[in-house]
């Protein structure tokens, strides 16, 4: 009788360990992969370093800039948001919500503020292709001393030519303004 009770006790301990292990594995997988909503919003954000480098060089040496010649990825719309835009406003203007966080935990913790511009010199540039974000990056005027002068924050691939002028408002002309050519 004692042997049977021991066997039942070990069996229930084993079941408890299996259940705890399964719950831990499920929690780990959930924290990495998240929900279907997270998966549908997650973008594989391409690097903006090449674009920023090309744009810096182009505005310092040319009176005109064509964004099509500076991008090495496909896009059909671009948005540039000035300081003090909330993530909600950004998503409303672009018509799409996205995240570039690699983990679901990062998404849960920071998504509500991920794509806002909260400082005087903080801008957000967003490129879309087929209504999906392919590049989204915040930049400061110290990293990219360029202010885009746009109506409705938006340009299209078909209308992406700019006149470069020195900004009188910032840093004695060191910051350039890109005015969309009509």
Number of helices: 6
Low-confidence stretches: none
Percent in strands: 15-25%
Count of β-strands: 8
Mean pLDDT: 84
What structural class do helix, strand and pairing data support?
A: alpha+beta
Descriptive overview:
The chain is an alpha+beta fold and 182 residues long. The protein folds into two domains: 2-33; 41-180, no CATH class. The protein has helices at residues 2-33, 36-41, 49-61, 67-70, 87-94, 104-110; strands at 64-66, 77-81, 122-129, 132-140, 146-149, 154-156, 161-166, 176-180. The strands form two sheets. Strands 1-7-8-5 form a four-stranded mixed sheet. Strand 3 (122-129) and strand 4 form a beta hairpin. The longest helix has 32 residues, at 2-33. The protein is elongated and about 95 Å long.
Helix-strand layout with pairing:
Blueprint: H1 2-33, H2 36-41, H3 49-61, E1 64-66, H4 67-70, E2 77-81, H5 87-94, H6 104-110, E3 122-129, E4 132-140, E5 146-149, E6 154-156, E7 161-166, E8 176-180
Parallel strand pairs: 5-8
Antiparallel strand pairs: 1-7, 2-3, 2-6, 3-4, 7-8
Q: How would you describe this structure in keywords?
A:
single chain; 182 residues; alpha+beta; 2 domains; 4-stranded mixed β-sheet; 4-stranded antiparallel β-sheet; 6 helices; 8 strands; 38% helix
Brief summary of the model shown:
38% of the residues lie in helices and 24% in strands. With 182 residues, it is of the alpha+beta class.
């Amino acid at each position: 009788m004692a042997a049977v009770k021991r066997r039942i006790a070990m069996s229930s301990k084993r079941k408890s360990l299996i259940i705890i292990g399964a719950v831990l594995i499920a929690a780990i997988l959930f924290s990495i992969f998240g929900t279907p909503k997270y998966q549908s919003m997650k973008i594989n954000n391409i690097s903006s370093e090449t674009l920023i480098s090309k744009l810096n060089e182009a505005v310092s040496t040319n009176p005109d800039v064509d964004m099509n010649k500076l991008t090495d990825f496909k896009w059909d719309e671009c948005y540039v948001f000035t300081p003090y835009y909330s993530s909600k406003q950004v998503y409303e203007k672009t018509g799409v919500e996205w995240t570039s966080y690699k983990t679901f935990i990062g998404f849960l913790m920071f998504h509500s503020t991920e794509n806002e511009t909260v400082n005087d010199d903080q801008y957000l540039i967003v490129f879309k292709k087929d209504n999906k974000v392919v590049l989204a990056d915040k930049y400061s005027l110290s990293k990219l001393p360029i202010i885009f002068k746009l109506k409705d924050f938006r340009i299209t691939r078909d209308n992406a030519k700019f006149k470069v002028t020195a900004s009188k408002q910032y840093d004695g002309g060191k910051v350039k303004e890109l005015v969309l050519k009509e």
